[in-house]
TrEMBL record:
It comes from Halalkalibacter oceani. This is Transporter. CDD domains: SLC6sbd_Tyt1-Like (cd10336). Signal peptide: none annotated. NCBIfam families: Na_transp. It is a multi-pass membrane protein. PANTHER family: TRANSPORTER (PTHR42948). The chain crosses the membrane at residues 12-31, 43-65, 86-113, 142-161, 173-195, 215-236, 248-277, 297-330, 342-364, 379-398, 419-441. It is found in: Membrane. Keywords: Membrane, Symport, Transmembrane, Transmembrane helix, Transport.
């Protein structure tokens, strides 16, 4: 099999690019409000356990599949398990990425709009009623659709030319800057009056507020925040050098992801309690709390603008990985024009995202299983399709993928190969599938 695929220029470039793909809306936008709705500290602790034991194991698995096949998601399963039904795992990943993008890009559009408003000084200038501004952005149909279109346009332009050089090079500078500005926000948030009440809510576990559905959300969040389950990382790792240490690279991404989730919680919840807001505010939590925090800082408008731009980049790098799995599925071996596929994909995702974009306005009263289009798609993707995708990937790598190839990919550059290989195989064979099945059974008992 000839291999014409590009490779990441360095291990650091791969880790930062993969972290950029994972660290986006999942860790910065979704985590704070999902944690706020599900018990705070108890949810965070369960999320960490799931991320370390299951999310990390899944990330290693997708890296092994991608680098082992050196192909994008659908072709990877065809290569590793020819003439079998396992290719459906890759196809489900493409479908899942499409559905995820249909609401992810809506939020990305909000970030684009807020970035523009912040640079022009219109966010903090709105005064203290940040909820009204958010309601205006999300509830006015043409504003929401413009945001969605602009966000997708950026994706289409970048992915039309390929993403390796731009993303990898930019991540080396912008990801560290994102951490720096996050730390600034955390420090400022912790100095607000009443901040410690928010810290206790976030870091002091209270399991009386945890439900079976909350545990399911924690599992789904661990998958969502690491971008595993839809084989996105299969595509990314197909460009990884054969000599790189997969477990170490995956561990670095997981540590960065948990750290960003910690920073997000410490940045958001102290402000929530300081300003008397509701921690279970929902998807708008970040967009109402960030302006409130920065408005209390010297040069707050400048800091808010810079942070939103960096947040926009983190959001884009995640959406790049999602759209890339769709585009690469149709451009493998240069069968089709990448630019044309990127444009068509962008248009289709835009059309699919219209119901989610209007879910906070004219379609707010339209319900699917008691949820808006936005919430129903989010629930389907995060709590059903992602766990199922992880379950199938676990079964594939343990029971179908060639064990010799698995061992070779896992142990490359790993001095603790025998120990960690045994631990990882045990987790993938027993802990991952059993946990997913038990959580699903518990979820079904809720209805």
């Amino acid at each position: 099999m000839s291999d014409q695929r590009e490779q990441w220029s360095s291990k650091l470039g791969f880790i930062l690019s993969t972290a950029g793909a994972a660290i986006g809306l999942g860790a910065i936008w979704k985590f704070p409000y999902v944690a706020g709705m599900n018990g705070g500290g108890a949810f965070f602790l369960i999320f960490i356990i799931f991320t370390v034991l299951i999310g990390l194991s899944m990330l290693v698995s997708e890296f092994i599949i991608g680098r082992g096949a050196r192909r994008e998601a659908i072709t990877a399963y065809k290569t590793l398990a020819p003439q079998s039904a396992w290719v459906l795992v890759g196809r489900m990943g493409v479908l899942g990425c499409f559905l995820l993008l249909s609401f992810y890009c809506v939020v990305g559009g909000w970030v684009v709009l807020y970035s523009g408003f912040a640079i022009s000084g219109k966010v903090i200038a709105e005064g203290a009623d940040y909820g009204q501004l958010f309601a205006q952005v999300t509830g006015t149909p043409w504003i929401g659709l413009i945001g969605l279109a602009l966000f997708l346009l950026i994706n289409v332009i970048v992915l039309s030319f390929g993403i390796k050089n731009g993303i990898e090079r930019a991540n080396k500078y912008l990801m560290p800057l994102l951490f720096i500005f996050f730390l600034i926000l955390v420090i400022r948030s912790l100095t607000l009056e009443g901040a410690m009440e928010g810290v206790r809510f976030f870091l002091q576990p209270d399991f009386s507020n945890i439900t079976g559905e909350g545990i399911l959300y924690a599992l789904g969040q661990s998958f969502f925040s690491l971008a595993v389950g839809f084989s996105c990382m299969v595509t990314y790792s197909s460009y990884l050098n054969k000599n790189e240490n997969i477990p170490a690279a995956a561990s670095s991404v997981v540590v960065m992801n948990i750290f960003v989730s910690l920073l997000a919680g410490l940045a958001i919840f102290p402000v929530v309690f300081s300003f008397g807001l509701e921690p279970a505010e929902g998807p708008g939590l970040l967009f109402m709390v960030l302006p409130a925090a920065f408005s209390q800082m010297p040069f707050g408008g400048l800091f808010l603008s810079l942070f939103l731009l960096l947040f926009l980049f983190a959001t884009l790098t995640s959406s790049f990985s999602l759209l890339e799995i769709i585009i690469s599925a149709f451009t493998e071996n240069n069968k089709r024009s990448r630019a044309k596929v990127a444009l068509i994909s962008g248009i289709v995702v835009f059309l699919a995202g219209i119901p989610a974009a209007l879910s906070f306005g004219v379609l707010a009263d339209v319900q699917l299983f008691g949820k808006t289009f936005f919430d129903a798609t989010d629930y389907l993707v995060s709590n059903i399709m992602l766990p199922l995708g992880c379950l199938f990937i676990a079964l594939f790598i343990v029971h179908r993928m060639d064990r010799k190839l698995v061992n070779e990919e896992f142990t490359a550059g790993n001095s603790l190969s025998a120990v960690w290989l045994s631990v990882w195989l045990f987790l993938m064979k027993w802990v991952v599938p059993i946990t997913i099945i038990v959580v699903f059974i518990n979820m079904l008992g809720l209805f």
